[in-house]
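Morning F.,

Quick status update on the modeling queue. The single chain you submitted on Monday has been processed. Sequence for confirmation:
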Amino acid sequence: MKVFRHLTSIAFLIHAFGSYGQTVNVDYLNPTSTSTNYDYARFGTSSLYYAGFMYNKVDTNYGDGDDFSIFTYGNRDLTFRTGLGNIIFFPTSKGKIGIGTKSPLSLVDINGGVSGDAILRIESDTENAGSETDNPRIEMYQDGQLIGAKIGFNEDTATPANHFQFDMIQPSGVIENALTINPYSGKIGLGVFVHSEDARLVVDGKIMAEEIRVQTVPASDYVFEPDYHLRSLSEVDRFIRENKHLPDVPSTEEFKQNGVGLGEMDDMLLRKIEELTLYVIELKKENEELRSRDKDHQQRIGQLERLIEP
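Structure tokens below.
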């Protein structure tokens, strides 16, 4: 506050004589001090101070100058306590609230300074008793509360309880579970609560990406080892006619039931490509052998034709 005047009807209750006190009503409070830096009024005695008010003129230890301060001495707390009313900070002219900083950059600016963390702590359900549904969270709204988001823990409907989640608010309703984190496992869900799925990320819907890199090493090169059993084409043909899918490849029902692992599927497809390559090489050899035999037969036929010519 930059102005220290027109403090009307301030009541100072000065405790003395046990439970008795004295009330002083003033229209203006104008304390004087020997300091040229600030004026103040303190609670306590001349040898023991408890708390006070101060108009700081130029001392940068208490602000930027021309500031009003409420302070305590020692390890005493500064509390604001109301009955049924609210505690309201209502800065005018785009004033800001700074915690740990004299130059806040936003409506509320928390600054840890050159050392230490800047922590905003929010807690609920401190006694952890019974089946309570107390949730610490932050809610944000704009456009007349048509659009918004809720960020925090959910003990209401999450299973297991206490999922950390993001809920999005839109005109048509609330999109729950936009993003959830299971605090017991660290697993993440998009559009779904993560229970005991064997995955770090579970998505209820489609995923679009420019690239997905699977960090598994294909092991299918054993197909080229001399001891690898390569089925004959007649065996493959018989297996397909009986089972309606390739050997070593899951059936349609198995895909529907178990899904597809990208790394496993890539390795499977690579193995089939390598087997096809071996089949092509084998067919090429057979083809070259047939062409060689055909050429030899043509030469013999030519010789026979020359022998029977008149």
